[in-house]
User: What shape does this take?
Amino acid sequence: MDLIVPSIGLIFWMTLTFLVVFFLLKKMAWKPILKSLKDREQSIQTALDSAEKAKEEMKALQASNEAILMEARNERDKLLKEARETKDSIIGEAKAKAQIEADKIMQSTRDAIQSEKVAAMDEIKTQVARLSIEIAEKIIRTELSSDEKQKALVNTMIDEVNLN
Amino acid sequence: MNLKVIDFKLISSFKKLLFVVALLFAVPAMVSAEPSDAKAEAGKEGKSFNAGDMILEHVSDAHSWHVAGDVSIPLPIILYSSNHGFAMFCSNKLENGAIYNGYKMNGEHIVVANSDGSTNTADTAKLWDFSITKTAASIMLSGILLLLIMTAVSRGYSKRGLGAPKGIQSFFEPIIVFVRDDLAIPSIGKKNYEKFMPFLLTLFFFILLMNILGLVPFFPGGANVTGNIAITTTLACFTFIVMMANSGKTYWGHTLWMPGVPAWVKISILGPIETLGIILKPFTLLIRIFANMLAGHIVALSFFALIFIFGGLWGHFAGYLTSVFSVAFSAGMLLLDVLVSLIQAYVFTLLSAIYFGMATEEAEHH
Assistant: This one.
């Protein structure tokens, strides 16, 4: 039966056609096409890789920015804290100094008052002594103005002496 | 990996199913056609419609290309025989049983005629027919078409460089990439696939184009090309030759001298079986595509034949009525054949790639 017996002529022409088509296509189509496909895939891969790398770099940059920001914030906090401490210590010191000064002033005032007081007392004592002498003088003068009175006094005194 | 195995199993089972279906259709058609072949001469005189003849005529090769109605293109006949030498002439010289240069046409066979018009059987046996038949002309047309298409695609690449594909280039690029990434690389491996790519691509597109062109029902198409056993034999032989040319030590070692098997088993059982297997591989390739494509043509034609059979039995009206269903069924069959065309091109290329993978395999996974 014709249907299942391969004819030699057809095998010949098929071989020839296939070989011609194969070699022409290989040279004119498949090689350039496959090469272009490969090149394009490679270029896409490279582009993707570099994009990925850029993303990574961006991420690293962002992380470092974050770190720098954090550090700056910490630095600021530290400075503020130090300033506060310095302020507190200055105020405290000033207060203590003022206290000491005040105490000193008070002490000296107290001393001055004391010495003034002593001087005043001395003055008063002198005055009192002088006045007492003057008064005594006046009294004595009055008492010894007549002879009788002088005798009377002597007598009294003698009486008083009372020779026991 | 697992998915791929399942995928492959699915494909192979689908393929088997198609093969069985094709055989189921093809075998009765062939058997029923056989007796009618003998009655062909009688049928022509009797004027009654013979479906077997009609179908066989459409699926067999011819020396002229029928276009439409009474118009057909004569094709060159090229003959060689040891005692008559070369002869080359146009096929219309042999039309209607005419004798030219001592040759005449017996059906679609060219035979040597005696002076009284009878067939010279002894000389006919020595006759080599290298005529460009309908099928040969069709493969040449497919070849030229494929060259035109693919050079156009290639031009797209040289024009656009690494840019995005456009037009015809963007239509074929996914198919080329599919052949590379889903046929060649998984079957052959990343290391060796590149040298087989031109062959596999040519195989795939050539088969696909011939299949599809064979389905086109009007003139430049319609030839039953891939359903012709000479064509599929040649293609399978190419695969076989490429496979053998690239087979390595590991392949032959594993095929003929399977490691880990006792020597007497290797010699008495495995050796002969594997040797047979080497030859059976291309044989299954050629039979699979031949049977599938032939069956597709026969079934589609059978539906058309029904129109005339019923028309002849119960008058024109029955014929018209049947034509509605027949055309619908034929259209469905044709769509199925488009699918079969794709699948057969795919399977042929895939199996070729798998054979190449087996041949170039290196002993590293044992």
About this structure: The mean pLDDT of chain A is 91. The helical segments of chain A are 8-143, 147-161.
